[in-house]
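Minutes, project check-in
Item: structure for the 84-residue chain
Input as provided by the requester:
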Amino acid sequence: MVQSRRNEKGDRRPRKKVYGYVLKIKEIRESKNISLNKLSKISGVSKSTLYQIENNDSKPYFDTIYKISRALKVKIDDLVDGIS
């Protein structure tokens, strides 16, 4: 599913969901002793969304993964554990 959203310039750009990868967000978050609440606050991603992503109940958009990687101070590649 592709949705559109306006960027800073007001242009519409497609938002793409990330499929086929196992995300290691929880593993990395716990290794850095960061709570779900704290990650939510520093990433700007809701706690419920983070919970769903960590439990593989939701496939995130790429920009969500980007926010999480910045908050955890890791490369996006570090969050991805191969093709599932």
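Outcome recorded: Residues 25-83 form a domain with the 434 Repressor (Amino-terminal Domain) fold (CATH 1.10.260.40).
No further action items on this chain.
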